[in-house]
Specification:
This protein is an alpha/beta fold and 111 residues long. The protein has one domain: Transcription Regulator spoIIAA, CATH 3.30.750. It is 50% helix and 17% strand. α1 links the parallel β1 and β2. α1 runs parallel beside α2. It is globular. The model has no long low-confidence stretch (mean pLDDT 88).
């Protein structure tokens, strides 16, 4: 399982590096689960989101990612932006949104 814990804002290069590291971890460890703890995430740029949908999503799904759990941001705008991408994500992955990390881990079948 890849687990990402946001600590605020990321520019496009930082976000791309994070996603690339996650894909590498999926490959190296045969992972199929991703937990994004976005409670402290700030709004991502439209370009970063579009690039993730166009490049990261197909790569991650292609190397075995099956389930993507998202702990929603405390920021209402950031949460709304994440939920708006649900249709794109769910075409390739099983995606669910949660209020807590514990709920997300339970859904992923992890302690």
């Amino acid at each position: 399982m890849v687990r990402v814990e946001w600590e605020g804002w990321a520019d496009e290069a930082e976000f791309a590096a994070l996603l690339e590291a996650g894909v590498r971890a999926l490959i190296d460890h045969g992972g199929s689960l991703w937990l994004a703890d976005c409670r402290r995430e700030r709004v991502l740029s439209t370009a970063s989101s579009a690039r993730a949908d166009a490049e990261w999503l197909p790569r991650a799904a292609g190397v075995g990612l099956k389930r993507f759990a998202v702990v929603l941001p405390e920021s209402g705008l950031a949460a709304m932006n994440l939920k708006a991408r649900e249709a794109t994500l769910s075409t390739r992955l099983e995606v669910a949104y949660f209020a807590t990390v514990e709920e997300a881990l339970e859904w992923l079948g992890r302690p």
